[in-house]
Amino acid sequence: MNNTFDPFNHFGFLTHRVARLLDIRMQQRLKDLGYDFPSSCLGVLANLWYEDGVTQSHLGYTLDKNKSSINKMLEALVSYELIEKREDPQDKRNKLIYLTEKGKLFQASVEESSKDLRSEFINEYTEEELTTTKKVLKNFYLNLKNKISNDL
Fold first, then answer.
1. Cα-flanking dihedrals φ and ψ of residue 12, to 5°?
2. Burial of residue 134, with CB atoms counted within 10 A of its CB: 0-12 exposed, 13-18 middle, 19 or more buried
3. Using a CB cutoff of 8 Å and minimum separation of 24, what contacts does 61-65 make?
4. Residue 74 in contact with residue 121, Cβ under 8 Å?
5. Is 126 exposed, middle or buried (0-12, 13-18, 19+ CB in 10 A)?
6. What share of the chain is helix, strand, coil (3-state, %, to 5)?
7. Model-level pTM?
8. Rounded Cα gap, residues 132 and 92, in angstroms
9. pLDDT by residue (tens digit) across 105-150?
10. Among candidates 7, 4, 8, 19, which has minimal Cα distance to 140?
């Protein structure tokens, strides 16, 4: 059988594999720092470093995760005292998710690990190549998210 499919020329394959390998490496960095939670939890922290005090449903939407997945991620981060849940003064039924002081300080460790990963894997690319790559991926993500949201 002469199959012309080349997975290394397939956008979905490449983006998934790159993300997965970066995830594996970051998971090891987290363990080295003494944190044994999935690196996907960093998405929650990153959102909170950007905008602290949001609802669980907001995190689920922005991270493209279901309620069960977000619950597990939040439980892990609470257990390491990086976040806390507080009653929403606007709606007592809701909890707002906030960084703890430890969670705020943890940002520096994550940023340092990211810099290490960058120097380990990405330094061979020019700043222009990286800027273009990030721009294309961001636009692709936003367009895809918008299309999927409109289809629901």
1. -60, -45
2. exposed
3. 64/145, 65/40
4. no
5. exposed
6. 70, 10, 25
7. 0.82
8. 44
9. 999 999 988 888 888 888 888 989 989 999 999 999 899 988 887 7
10. 19
Which residue reads 């806390």 in tokens? 84
Q: Which two tokens stand for residue 118?
A: 């960058």
What would the two tokens of residue 98 be? Answer: 């906030």
54-66: pLDDT as tens digits: 999 999 999 989 9
Question: Which candidate, 14, 70, 25, places its Cα nearest to that of 47?
Answer: 70
CA distances from 93 to 2, 65, 86 (A): 59, 21, 11
Burial 5-26 (b: 16+ CB within 10 A, else e): eeeeeeeeeeeeeeeeeeeeeb
